């Protein structure tokens, strides 16, 4: 059993954790790094590391509760695959397969297992905890929260245009209506069990982009990458793509 790492904060939006034993052999001088959190910040950090040539994996114990799924790899945990700005992520349930996925797969593995299994699945050079951070609500956007606990249902998808007054979803017998015209930039997955006051729907202003890495998570990811111990922190990525996820 590998030792649990120590915590070292390097950014308000993320915490870096490093192995307590510096003598643990590393299978690559570029990682591996585990990023905890499948939201837009964790996904941006994983994207930056992967495109910089680092072996990286993602982990989240509640991926179905990610709101801005178009800005993240969260759908990979549920659907098996997701794409963010041209980079793919695939679901991985067996810790025994982590080695090959980290160093041979052309996509980022998303670990669907409990936290202890994920933290001990590989000799992580660093662990970045991006779970608690919310980069904030973009200007002109509004968020609808759950009026009660229950099952969230919706027929819409991220990227859809909604006029003011349109029915956008429901929790139990409580109906939700769009308070303004706009684009669905965030949407809880249909069928997710939610709690009272949990964010369910984000409506951005006309022209808002619901896909790709948003500016705030991008800045956080750049800062985290620079703050990681060398040679894991290798600077900004060398290749980028503007393609939207499938």
Listing every helix as H and every strand as E from the N terminus to the C terminus, the arrangement reads EEEHEHEEHEHEEEEEEEEEH
Describe the largest sheet: 8 strands, mixed
Distance between termini? 38 Å
Overall pLDDT confidence: 83
Strand % is 25-35%
Q: Which parts are unreliable, with pLDDT below 50 for 5 consecutive residues or more?
A: 1-13, 19-29, 233-246
What proportion of the residues is helical, as a percent range?
10-25%
Count of discrete structural domains: 2
Q: Overall 3D geometry?
A: globular
**Rounded to an integer, what's the Rg over CA atoms?**
18 Å
Order of strands, main sheet, comes to: 1-2-8-3-4-7-6-5
Q: What is the number of beta strands?
A: 16
Helix and strand composition category: alpha+beta
What's the tally of helices?
A: 5
Structure in a nutshell:
By secondary structure, the chain is α+β, with helices and mostly antiparallel strands. It has helices at 40-51, 75-79, 98-103, 115-119, 215-227; strands spanning 6-11, 14-18, 33-36, 56-59, 81-84, 87-92, 108-111, 126-129, 142-145, 150-153, 161-162, 167-171, 174-177, 182-187, 193-194, 199-204.
Your description of this structure?
- This protein is α+β, with helices and mostly antiparallel strands and 246 residues long.
- The protein has two domains: 6-134 and 214-227, no CATH class; 142-204, OB fold (Dihydrolipoamide Acetyltransferase, E2P) (Beta Barrel), CATH 2.40.50.
- It is built from five helices and 16 strands.
- The chain has helices at 40-51, 75-79, 98-103, 115-119, 215-227, and strands spanning 6-11, 14-18, 33-36, 56-59, 81-84, 87-92, 108-111, 126-129, 142-145, 150-153, 161-162, 167-171, 174-177, 182-187, 193-194, 199-204.
- The strands form three sheets. An eight-stranded mixed β-sheet has the order 1-2-8-3-4-7-6-5.
- A hairpin with a 2-residue loop joins strand 12 (167-171) and strand 13 (174-177).
- Helix 1 packs across helix 5.
- The termini are far apart.
- Mean pLDDT is 83; it is low at 1-13, 19-29 and 233-246.
């Amino acid at each position: 059993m590998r030792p649990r790492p120590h915590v070292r904060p390097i950014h308000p939006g993320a915490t870096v954790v490093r192995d307590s034993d510096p003598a643990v052999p590393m299978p690559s001088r570029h990682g591996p790094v585990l990023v905890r959190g499948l939201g837009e910040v964790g996904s941006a950090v994983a994207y930056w590391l992967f495109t910089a040539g680092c072996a990286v994996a993602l982990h989240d114990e509640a991926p179905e509760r990610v709101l801005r799924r178009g800005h993240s790899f969260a759908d990979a945990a549920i659907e098996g695959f997701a794409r963010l700005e041209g980079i793919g992520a695939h679901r991985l349930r067996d810790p025994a397969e982590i080695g090959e996925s980290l160093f041979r797969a052309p996509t980022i593995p998303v670990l669907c297992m409990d936290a202890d299994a994920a933290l001990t699945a590989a000799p992580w050079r660093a662990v970045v905890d991006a779970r608690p951070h919310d980069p904030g609500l973009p200007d002109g956007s509004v968020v609808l929260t759950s009026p009660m606990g229950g099952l969230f249902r919706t027929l819409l998808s991220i990227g859809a245009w909604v006029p003011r007054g349109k029915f956008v979803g429901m929790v139990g017998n409580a109906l939700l209506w769009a308070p303004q015209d706009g684009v669905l930039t965030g949407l809880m997955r249909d069928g997710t069990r939610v709690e009272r006051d949990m964010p369910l729907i984000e409506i951005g202003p006309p022209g808002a982009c619901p896909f790709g890495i948003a500016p705030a998570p991008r800045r956080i990811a750049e800062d985290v990458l620079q703050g990681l111990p060398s040679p894991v922190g290798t600077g900004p990525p060398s290749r980028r793509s503007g393609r939207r996820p499938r």
